[in-house]
Amino acid sequence: MKWLKNIVTACFGGLAGLSLNCKAAVRLQSEALEHQLSFRQRLGLRLHLLLCVWCRRYGKQIAFIHHAAHSHPDEMTKIVPQQLSSEARERLRQKIRAESK
Amino acid sequence: MSTDHANEPRPPLPAEHPPAAGQLSDPEQWVELHGDYLFKYALMRLRDPARAEDAVQETFLAALKGGRSFAGRSAEKSWLVGILKNKIYDHYRKNSRETSFTDLEFYADEESDRFVPDGLCQDGWIHELGPLDWSSPGASLDSELFWQTFRDCSSHLPKTVAAVFSLREVDGMESKEICALLNISESNLWVMLHRARMALRRCLETNWFAKPGVAE
Predict the structure, then answer these.
(1) Cα(first)–Cα(last) distance of chain A, in Å?
(2) Which of B123, B151, B170 sits opposite A21 (nearest CB)?
(3) B124–A21: do the CB atoms touch at under 8 Å?
(4) Cβ–Cβ gap A69/B170 under 8 Å
(5) CA of B75 vs chain A CAs: smallest distance (Å)
(6) pLDDT for A46-73, tens place per residue?
């Protein structure tokens, strides 16, 4: 069966030269949110996405996260109501008092 | 006045001087008037109560030195927030120089358990573990529980990565600005954002989109 593997590898080798593995494809999709990719990168990514449903999903999902966070800053930064402890208050008051003398 | 400053347009570094002439409230009152708000603001971004308290203290002390004339209480508050932002950036900067052990683990991992380790399909998704189909994710945006999950997920990011993510995705700062602020290279920033997105995506999938009965 070794000959079969060789043929398969040879056929897809040409494509693989331009195409990417999934690890590279997910990295590039994130980078595409930051800057314009090179022509070669874009072509490779396009080709990969044609064939790979997982990376297509991945790209959509990080874009969703990107836009969700960006359009809902209030939701993102909401925290459980938290107040200064009374000790912390006292420390701050004393500092201010000491400094304003 | 609005209690939210996250939406303010962001000049690279807000000015540290009072904007208008008027009456500044008694500094002795600042802790009561603004302490909790500033603390929350800092805690949200630094995620460490001790550092947050430090930042608030530095803010008050800088404000004391900064000037004593003012328009009114709301102006006073935004002035203090402006100072606090700079103090928080100082902490980010300090932090970005000390990469902690957990950060290194975070970088080494790169979801390697989800990619084929060797052979013809090396570095392809292991099919059963590849990203799932998130049906109509937009519907989740109205759910308070979804955002709770989102916040929980981002709280698991290493501090530096969380800081970068929040500056870029939440505050919408440009890549170049963030690099200048934290003194890191752009490619370094891209790697951090990539890892943050990867980790968040996975966490959201596990704890929200793939959780039975949650995301419908």
Answers:
(1) 88
(2) B123
(3) yes
(4) yes
(5) 20
(6) 999 998 999 999 999 999 999 998 888 7
> Alpha helices, DSSP H only, in A1-101?
2-18, 22-31, 39-51, 53-71, 73-77, 86-100
The Cα B127–Cα B122 span in angstroms is 12
The residue among B36, B38, B40, B176 with the most chain A CBs within 10 A of its CB, best to mutate, is B40
Q: Which amino acid is at A27?
A: R
- Residues in chain A within 8 Å Cβ distance of B186: 34-35
Quickly list DSSP for B59-112: HHHHHHHH-SB-S-HHHHHHHHHHHHHHHHHHHHHHHHHS--HHHHHHHHHTTG
The token duo for B37 is: 């708000």
Residue B147 tokens read as 């955002």
- Nearest residue, CB atoms, B141 vs list A35, A68, A93: A68
Q: What are phi and psi of A9, to 5 degrees?
A: -60, -40
ipTM of the complex: 0.72
Contact A62 B171 (CB under 8 A): no
Residue with tokens 């420390």: A91
The two three-digit tokens of residue B20, written as one number? 């208008």
Q: Within an 8 Å CB–CB cutoff, is residue A41 touching chain B?
A: no
Q: Tokens 């902490």 correspond to what residue?
A: B91
**pLDDT digits 0-9 by tens, B5-62:** 444 444 444 444 554 445 677 788 889 889 998 998 888 788 788 889 999 999 999 8
